[in-house]
Amino acid sequence: MEGTMTERIQVNGLPAEASFTAGGDLRWRVDGGAGRGEQSLAVESSVLGFTAEGREITVRAFVSQLKGPFCGVGNLGNRVMKNFVLEMPTEVVAKMWSERLRKYIDSLGRPKRIFIFLNPYGGKKSARKIFHTEIRPLLLAANIIYTLQETEYQLHAQELAYKLDFLNYDGIVCVSGDGVLVEVVNGLLQREDWDTAIKVPLGIIPAGTGNGLAKSILDAAGENYSIQNATFAVIRGHKRALDVTTVLQGNTKFFSILMLSWGLIADIDIESEKYRWMGDTRLDFYCILRVMKLRKYHGNIEYIPAPGHESFGKPKNEREAIAGNIEISKQGRDGDVDVLHGYQGPNCCFDDSVWRFLEGPFISIMLVNVPWVGKDAMPAPEAKFSDGFLDLVLIKDCPKSALASILLKTGNGSHVKSPYVMYLKVKAFRLVPGNRVGDSAKGGIVDVDGEVVARGEGVYMCGQERDPMSYGPPILLTVDKGLATVFSSR
Ligand SMILES: Nc1ncnc2c1ncn2[C@@H]1O[C@H](COP(=O)(O)OP(=O)(O)OP(=O)(O)O)[C@@H](O)[C@H]1O
């Protein structure tokens, strides 16, 4: 192992004693003048990249704006790009230092070439501008080579991910909302070579309305939610496994990474579209409206609780549940040539599992994979990226005043303490959605990762959505532990 290198150099024109440690810390002490003092940069967590020319090495750092002796340490406020020019005594010394820096950065396993999907249409339609002003400068500073592909229509990212030559890239990054990343996951899992394709690290840089995955990734690393921090998470190249849920109904199948919702939350998410002109306040406005004119839905659920979560619901006749489940799986596997290539869902064996059940009416049901489903909503504070379970958040009945408080508390996850909220982890889940209580002619919406996958009779239609599942027949959710990989800050 190589030891610490020490040298008398100039840093940004000031004479200094500098060292680069085997652990990747760049430290220097300026002896006199205005810049006097000691500074330290942990290359792994604070440096994007560097360039070397002659006797000069320019280190491109990404550091806290706050002043302090250890500028690269900690998470103090927003970060900015800052150059440190290290002037070495000779070119030979400069070469030695830059080789050591290069070797250290190479050892970090950071991505060198990435494929980027950019949705110019998502959120406030500003992804293109965000890319050029905030993301691209960081990628260039990190010497990352990228191929940029704008998505031109719905499901374009899915089509391209299906045929992308992923071996040319160290990662696939979406500058979008969660929807485009979900399409990429679905495209990769439909491929013949899905098992290698889904191992390509996926990155998300938030530029849409729904950005739950980016928020979850940054929050888990103790980082502030920002476009630049999300970009730096990709650059740093740490990886996390992410559970993938298979959503199956008959021959129809989807892969989900965020959430399935039915009832109140799905209604707010989808029906508030008609108030899009209000901007972000549409969700709050429609939320109040839906609480005031509260709906409940008939239906029933069955699930296999995670160990330690068996106290909720009622025990289901084991044989009956398994038989129902096998029937669904067979339809998906044998019924349609189209679904036979690509990933078929996890190899589940529920032989030793005890199913439990609960009958409606229900106000709201959510099955969540990561803690945050938007940058301000944390319905599942205990959700883990790759525990192999979904967090079930359920409200069966609740006075309106308590419901309003529950919805407000979703911002920090404390709603799960409410006696009206049932919160547990499940391994598999089966939903039979029914119609509205008191209005049997109207059904509800099944929302998977922000897309309507099924809707009942008399439900609001918006735009050109696809509803490939029918409303009513059982929808089965199974989880594949850590099937996908995402870039993360730590
Ligand atoms: N050029 C395009 N025109 C129209 N739709 C597109 C285009 N590119 C992608 N889409 C679709 O836009 C939808 C939303 O994408 P994205 O995930 O980026 O944003 P979002 O935050 O989830 O949603 P939104 O901001 O639209 O509410 C996806 O269904 C995607 O297929």
Automatic annotation (TrEMBL):
One of its GO terms (cellular component) is vacuolar membrane. It is found in: Vacuole membrane. Its EC number is 2.7.1.91. It is a peripheral membrane protein. One of its GO terms (biological process) is sphingosine biosynthetic process. Signal peptide: none annotated. It comes from the Eukaryota. It comes from Dendrobium catenatum. InterPro entries: ATP-NAD_kinase_N (IPR017438), Diacylglycerol_kinase_cat_dom (IPR001206), Lipid_Phosphate_FormReg (IPR050187), NAD/diacylglycerol_kinase_sf (IPR016064), YegS/DAGK_C (IPR045540). Keywords: ATP-binding, Kinase, Membrane, Nucleotide-binding, Transferase. Gene3D superfamilies: 2.60.200.40, Probable inorganic polyphosphate/atp-NAD kinase, domain 1 (3.40.50.10330). Pfam families: DAGK_cat, YegS_C. Residues 109-251 form the DAGKc domain. GO terms for molecular function: ATP binding; sphingosine kinase activity. It is an enzyme of class 2 (transferase). This is sphingosine kinase.
